[in-house]
C-alpha cells in the first residue's frame, strides 16, 4: 500500500483487515504524515475552542495535567493558536503521536504537549495533554523555532534498534536518576549527549547560571554522564508510572511520560565541584513532578533529551497508570485504643497519639487497623511516606503559652468515631496549616486524612512556591497566623435544650456554606452579622462573612468572584461539643472571565479550601480558611475510591 497523506487517513478502513489484524491496520492506515495531520487538526480545533470536529471515539479520555476532564472544558476555553515550534513523535505501529509545541492561555505563553492515541478505525480514543506554565520556557522554544535537525532525521533501516530496546534504553535514564547513585554505571549516555529542560539547555553550558532551584553553577556545565556521576539528582526518590507510549522507530526516538516523587528526606546536594550545598527550600516538603521527555538515541546511547515538567500534588497517580504502586494501605498493627467504643476523651487522646507518631516518623506505634488508609491532599500514600518523613514540628495543645503552639485545636465526634486536628505544621523550614481527620473503628485507626496547605514563599531560587502556578487571590507566605481564635477551643455554652434534634452543628450547614460560595451569594446561610473570616491568614478589607460571600467591596470583583463549581465537598468532622465543623472542597476557577483578566484568573485552576467553621447559637460566627492551588479539575481520591 502506498503511504497515505493526511487528507486520506479517515477514508481508509478495510473492514476485513480490521477484523483480522487490528494492530497492523493501525500501521497501514495512519503513517507519519497522517499522524502529523491529526496533530495539526487537533491544535486547530483547540485554538477554535471546538472539539466537535475531532474524530474521537464515544468514550474518548481527555486528560489535562493529570486530570481527566470532559472534552471541551479546561484548556478548550482559554487556548490561543499554537506557536511555531513543533516537535512531533510519530508511532504508526502503535497508532500513537505526540508533539511538543507552545501556545498562549489568555495571552500568557506556555509549553504545550499533546499525545493522541488512535484506534484501528482512525478514531482518537486518548488525548493526554501537559501544559507547562513557563512563559520563559515557551519563549526559548519560540526563539529556537524548530527542533534540532538530528531529532527529525530518518535513521537508515539497518541501523535502527527495535522498539523494545529503545524503551529499555530510555528507561535506564529513569533508573539512573531515581536515587541517583554517584557510583552507578551511566555509560548509556552518548559522550555528546545534551538535555533541554523546559526549552533551556542544562548540559554542557558555561553560562555560570545556577541549576534549577539550587545555587549550584557547575552542574549545568557538565555532560549528561558526568552529571549522573555526581549523584546530584538523588533528591528524586522515586520515578513511577513510567510510560513510553510513542516510539518513533524511524527516528530512533521515544516520547516518555513519568511521575517523579521527591519525598523530602534528602537534605544535602552532593559535591559537584568540591562543595556540597543544602537542598533548596522547595524540596523541604514532599513534591511530585510529572514529566514528558523525548529521547533520541544514537546507536545504543542516549544522545538528546527534551524534558518538560509540571508540579502536581504529592503522590498523584497517573491518569494512565503504568506499573503498580505497591501497597498503599497499612498491614495493620496489633494495638487498640484504650477504649472501644472510643468516647470523646479517647478520641482527643488519639489526636495526640497521631501527632506524636508523625513527629517520631513512626506510624507503627499507632493502633492501625489492617488496611488502614492514609492520604495527603487527596492522594493515598503508604503510611511512612509524606509527612511521616518530613514533619519536624506540630503545634500541640497544652503549650498555649508558647507561640509556636498557639495555633492548634483538637476536635472529636464520638457519634462517628472521628477525631480531628487543625494546627501549624513545620517541615524543615517550611510552615503549613495541617488539618487531620482520624477515623477510629473497633478500637483501631482505620483512616487518616491529612490536608496540608504549606506556605509558599518567594525566596532565593524560586523559594517554595508551587512550580508554575499563577498567583492566588490571597497568598500565605508563612507570615504568622497568630493564635487560633479562642472560640475554636471553647465548648458550646450549655442551653439545657431538651430537644435532642437541636444540633450545635446543624446538618446541611456545610452544604449551605459551599452553595453560597458557588453562587457568590450569602443568601440562605446563617451567618452571624459579626461573622469574620480569614483566608490563608489574611483578612480581606475587614469585610464580614456576608460581604465576602456576596463579593461586596473587594477589588476588582469580590473574593473568588469568578469561581464556579464547589466540588468534592467533604465534611471532615462536626464537633457537637465545640460547635465546630471542619470541611474541605475543591473550587474551580476556569479563567473564562472578560479581558483584561487579573493574573490570578488567566489560567484554569482549582483551589483546595479547608475551612474551619465555628457555629454559635446556630449561626456561623467565625471561619478560618486556607487555600491551596491545584491543577484544574483536581479530585480527591476519597471521592473517587468510594
Ligand atoms: C557499564 O555498562 C556497560 C554496558 O552495560 C559495560 O559494557 C561496562 O563494562 C560497564 N562499566 C563498568 C565499569 O562496569
Ligand atoms: C571547580 O573548582 C575549581 C577549584 O576549586 C575551579 O578552579 C574550577 O573553575 C571549578 N570548576 C567550575 C566548572 O566552576
Ligand atoms: C542560595 O544563595 C542565596 C543567596 O546567597 C542564599 O540566600 C540561599 O540560602 C542559598 N540557598 C541554598 C539552598 O544554598
Ligand atoms: C500481631 O500479632 C501476630 C500474632 O499474634 C504476630 O504474628 C504479629 O507479628 C503481630 N504484629 C505486630 C505488628 O506486632
Ligand atoms: C524516601 O527517600 C529516601 C531516600 O531515597 C528513602 O530511603 C526512603 O525509603 C523513601 N521513603 C519512602 C516512604 O519511600
Ligand atoms: C442548665 O442546667 C443546670 C443544671 O441542671 C443549671 O444549673 C443551669 O442553670 C441551667 N442553665 C440554663 C441556661 O438554664
Ligand atoms: C426529632 O426528629 C424526628 C425525625 O425528624 C422527629 O420524628 C421527632 O419528632 C423530633 N423530635 C423532637 C423532640 O422534635
Ligand atoms: C480592620 O479593622 C481594625 C480595627 O477596626 C483596624 O485596626 C485594621 O487596620 C483594619 N484592617 C483593614 C485591612 O482595614
Ligand atoms: C462579581 O462581582 C461583581 C461586582 O463587583 C458583580 O457584578 C458580578 O456579578 C460578580 N460575579 C459573580 C460571578 O458573582
UniProtKB/TrEMBL annotation:
The answer to whether keyword Signal applies is yes
Signal peptide bounds = 1-26
Presence of the UniProt keyword Signal in the record: yes
Domain DUF8021: residue ranges: 159-307, 510-626
* Residue ranges that the Swiss-Prot or TrEMBL entry lists as coiled coil: none
Keywords of the record, alphabetical order, are: Signal
Would you tell me the protein name for this molecule? DUF8021 domain-containing protein
Lineage, opening ranks: Eukaryota, Fungi, Dikarya, Ascomycota, Pezizomycotina
Amino acid at each position: 500500500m502506498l503511504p497515505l497523506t493526511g487528507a486520506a487517513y479517515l477514508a481508509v478502513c478495510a473492514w476485513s483487515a480490521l477484523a483480522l489484524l487490528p494492530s497492523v491496520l493501525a500501521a497501514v492506515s495512519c503513517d507519519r504524515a497522517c499522524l502529523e495531520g491529526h496533530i495539526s487538526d487537533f491544535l486547530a480545533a483547540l485554538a477554535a475552542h471546538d472539539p466537535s470536529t475531532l474524530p474521537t471515539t464515544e468514550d474518548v479520555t481527555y486528560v489535562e495535567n493529570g486530570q481527566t476532564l470532559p472534552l471541551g472544558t479546561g484548556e478548550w476555553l482559554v487556548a490561543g493558536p499554537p506557536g511555531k515550534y513543533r516537535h512531533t513523535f510519530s508511532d504508526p505501529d502503535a497508532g500513537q503521536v505526540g508533539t511538543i509545541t507552545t501556545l498562549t492561555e489568555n495571552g500568557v505563553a506556555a509549553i504545550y504537549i499533546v499525545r493522541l492515541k488512535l484506534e484501528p478505525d482512525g478514531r482518537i480514543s486518548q488525548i493526554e495533554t501537559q501544559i507547562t506554565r513557563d512563559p520563559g520556557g515557551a519563549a526559548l522554544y519560540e526563539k529556537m523555532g524548530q527542533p534540532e535537525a538530528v531529532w527529525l532525521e530518518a535513521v537508515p533501516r539497518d541501523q535502527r534498534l527495535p522498539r523494545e530496546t529503545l524503551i529499555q534504553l530510555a528507561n535506564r535514564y529513569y533508573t539512573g536518576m531515581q536515587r541517583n547513585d554517584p557510583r552507578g554505571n551511566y555509560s548509556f549516555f552518548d559522550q555528546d549527549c545534551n538535555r533541554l529542560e523546559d526549552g533551556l539547555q542544562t548540559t554542557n553550558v558555561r553560562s555560570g547560571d545556577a541549576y534549577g532551584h539550587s545555587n549550584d553553577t557547575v552542574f549545568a556545565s557538565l555532560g549528561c554522564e558526568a552529571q549522573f556521576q555526581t549523584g546530584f539528582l538523588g533528591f528524586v526518590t522515586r520515578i513511577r508510572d513510567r510510560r513510553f507510549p510513542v516510539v518513533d522507530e524511524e527516528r530512533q526516538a521515544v516520547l516518555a511520560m513519568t511521575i517523579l516523587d521527591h519525598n523530602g528526606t534528602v537534605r544535602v546536594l552532593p559535591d559537584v565541584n568540591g562543595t556540597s550545598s543544602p537542598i533548596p527550600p522547595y524540596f523541604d516538603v514532599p513534591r511530585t513532578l510529572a514529566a514528558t521527555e523525548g529521547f533520541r538515541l544514537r546507536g545504543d546511547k542516549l544522545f538528546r533529551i527534551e524534558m518538560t515538567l509540571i508540579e502536581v500534588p504529592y503522590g498523584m497517580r497517573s491518569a494512565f497508570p503504568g506499573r503498580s504502586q505497591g501497597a498503599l494501605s497499612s498491614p495493620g498493627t496489633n494495638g487498640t485504643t484504650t477504649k472501644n467504643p472510643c468516647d470523646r476523651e479517647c478520641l482527643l487522646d488519639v489526636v495526640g497519639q497521631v501527632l506524636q507518631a508523625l513527629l517520631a516518623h513512626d506510624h507503627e506505634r499507632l493502633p492501625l487497623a489492617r488496611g488502614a488508609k492514609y492520604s495527603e491532599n487527596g492522594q493515598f500514600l503508604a503510611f511512612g511516606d509524606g509527612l511521616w518523613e518530613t514533619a519536624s514540628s506540630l503545634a500541640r495543645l497544652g503549650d498555649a503559652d508558647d507561640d509556636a503552639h498557639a495555633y492548634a485545636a483538637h476536635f472529636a465526634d464520638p457519634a462517628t468515631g472521628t477525631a480531628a486536628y487543625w494546627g501549624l505544621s513545620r517541615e524543615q523550614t517550611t510552615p503549613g496549616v495541617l488539618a487531620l481527620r482520624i477515623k477510629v473503628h473497633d478500637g483501631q485507626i482505620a483512616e487518616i486524612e491529612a490536608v496540608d496547605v504549606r506556605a509558599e514563599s518567594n525566596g532565593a531560587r524560586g523559594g517554595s512556591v508551587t512550580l508554575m502556578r499563577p498567583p492566588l487571590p490571597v497568598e500565605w507566605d508563612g507570615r504568622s497566623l497568630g493564635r487560633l481564635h479562642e472560640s475554636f477551643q471553647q465548648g458550646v455554652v450549655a442551653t439545657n435544650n431538651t430537644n435532642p434534634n437541636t444540633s450545635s452543628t446543624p446538618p446541611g450547614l456545610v452544604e449551605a456554606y459551599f452553595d453560597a460560595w458557588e453562587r457568590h451569594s450569602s443568601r440562605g446561610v446563617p451567618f452571624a452579622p459579626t461573622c469574620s473570616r480569614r483566608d490563608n491568614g489574611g483578612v480581606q478589607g475587614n469585610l464580614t462573612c456576608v460581604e465576602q460571600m456576596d463579593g461586596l467591596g473587594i477589588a476588582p470583583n469580590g473574593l473568588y468572584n469568578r469561581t464556579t463549581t464547589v466540588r468534592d465537598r467533604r465534611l471532615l468532622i462536626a464537633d457537637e461539643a465545640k460547635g465546630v465543623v471542619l470541611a474541605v472542597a475543591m473550587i474551580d476557577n476556569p479563567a473564562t472571565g472578560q479581558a483584561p483578566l487579573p493574573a490570578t484568573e488567566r489560567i484554569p485552576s482549582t483551589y483546595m479550601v479547608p475551612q474551619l467553621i465555628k457555629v454559635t447559637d446556630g449561626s456561623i460566627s467565625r471561619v478560618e480558611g486556607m487555600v491551596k492551588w491545584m491543577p484544574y479539575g483536581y479530585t480527591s481520591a476519597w471521592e473517587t475510591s468510594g
